[in-house]
């Protein structure tokens, strides 16, 4: 069976890492008329009404901004086309770049974008957020500067010179089956859209294997003990800087006892229950599954397809 596509993965870009440290070569690529520079303002991309992401050349952007101060980050090549992202300076309203469009959060429009474009924009967003959050050295507090085509930051204190690299925070997300394999464990957080239930997720802590995180998080949030933890798939999730690692696990107990208040409700659902989510007249009319572009939905759909 063909694996369904997971949104935000499957980037067409050749990241061409050696070019990051070839200053002259990278400069030539950046300033070429082929380069597509994606502006990001307030963690939002600029979209046309279609929606299609908007980008500019170095020459066009340079008439509006001092691009060299902003240090565009090199993303890679799609066929022969080089892609970059630039983070626009913080401001109340976005600067006028001379092109029309609206700044929107990626998740708002992703279901209307081609998968390849969504994955490039997720990568761009992750890089911008990392730069925003690492303006100062984590060791000595001195401002840092961009290096390696935007793939490193270096402390400007010569005695320190600490280098930091883009980071991705791992989180596990797990579909938990009951011991009979006929029910799945879903919970909801109070801040989620009304009626939305999803599978169990949590951040990996230092000193833990991924399997141990699955077991700990499930127990903390739901009181359920699990074993037989198996990895299935992953999804880049730059909201703000995670990678979601998707698992399946088998419960060895069934009595729910919410522990850490992360969830406001948690229940077992059969496949038929889940299929009735949102169906008018059903007992689950007011409940909804996670967004179709989330790995949570992928895990649920995979499980639903098995019976
Ligand atoms: Zn430093």
Describe the protein's topology.
Layout: H1 23-31, E1 36-41, E2 44-47, H2 58-62, H3 67-70, E3 73-78, E4 81-87, E5 102-104, H4 106-109, H5 115-133, E6 144-147, E7 152-155, E8 163-164, E9 169-177, E10 183-188, E11 200-203, H6 210-222, E12 226-237, E13 242-251, E14 265-270, H7 271-275, H8 295-304
Bound molecules: zinc ion.
Explain this structure:
The protein is an alpha+beta fold and 307 residues long. The chain folds into two domains: 17-133, Alpha-Beta Complex (Nucleoside Triphosphate Pyrophosphohydrolase); 169-304, Nucleoside Triphosphate Pyrophosphohydrolase (Alpha-Beta Complex). It has helices at 23-31, 58-62, 67-70, 106-109, 115-133, 210-222, 271-275, 295-304, and strands at 36-41, 44-47, 73-78, 81-87, 102-104, 144-147, 152-155, 163-164, 169-177, 183-188, 200-203, 226-237, 242-251, 265-270. The strands form four sheets. The chain has a five-stranded mixed β-sheet, sandwiched between helices. A four-stranded mixed β-sheet has the order 11-9-13-12, with helices on both faces. The chain starts with 22 loop residues before the first helix and ends with a helix. 32% of the residues are buried. The mean pLDDT is 95. Bound molecules: zinc ion. The site of zinc ion (ZN) has 8 residues, from loops.
Summarize the structure.
With 307 residues, this protein is an alpha+beta fold. The protein has eight helices and 14 strands.
């Amino acid at each position: 069976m063909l694996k369904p596509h997971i949104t935000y993965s499957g980037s067409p870009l050749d990241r061409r890492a050696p070019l990051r440290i070839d200053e002259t070569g990278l400069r030539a690529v950046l300033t070429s008329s082929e380069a597509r520079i994606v502006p990001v303002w307030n963690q939002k991309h600029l979209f046309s009404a279609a929606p299609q992401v908007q980008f500019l050349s170095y020459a066009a952007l340079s008439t509006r901004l001092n691009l060299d101060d902003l240090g565009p980050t090199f993303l890679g090549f799609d066929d022969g086309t080089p892609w970059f992202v630039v983070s626009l300076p913080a401001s109340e309203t976005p600067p006028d770049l001379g092109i029309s469009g609206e700044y929107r959060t990626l998740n708002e429009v992703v279901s209307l974008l081609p998968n390849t474009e969504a994955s490039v924009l997720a990568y761009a967003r992750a890089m911008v957020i990392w730069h925003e959050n690492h303006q100062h050295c984590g060791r000595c507090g001195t401002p840092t500067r961009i290096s390696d085509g935007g793939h490193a930051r270096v402390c400007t204190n010569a005695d320190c010179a600490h280098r930091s690299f883009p980071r991705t925070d791992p989180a596990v997300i797990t579909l938990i089956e009951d011991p009979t394999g006929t029910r799945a464990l879903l919970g909801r957080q109070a801040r989620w859209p009304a009626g939305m239930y999803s599978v169990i997720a949590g951040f990996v802590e230092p000193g833990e294997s991924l399997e141990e995180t699955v077991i700990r998080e499930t127990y903390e949030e739901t009181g359920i003990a699990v074993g037989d933890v198996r990895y299935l798939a992953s999804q880049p999730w730059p909201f703000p800087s995670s990678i979601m690692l998707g698992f399946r696990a088998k419960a060895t107990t069934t009595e729910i006892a919410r522990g850490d208040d992360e969830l406001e409700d948690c229940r077992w659902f059969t496949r038929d229950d889940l299929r009735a989510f949102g169906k008018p007249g059903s007992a689950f009319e007011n409940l909804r599954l996670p967004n179709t572009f989330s790995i949570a939905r992928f895990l649920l759909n995979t499980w639903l397809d098995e019976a």
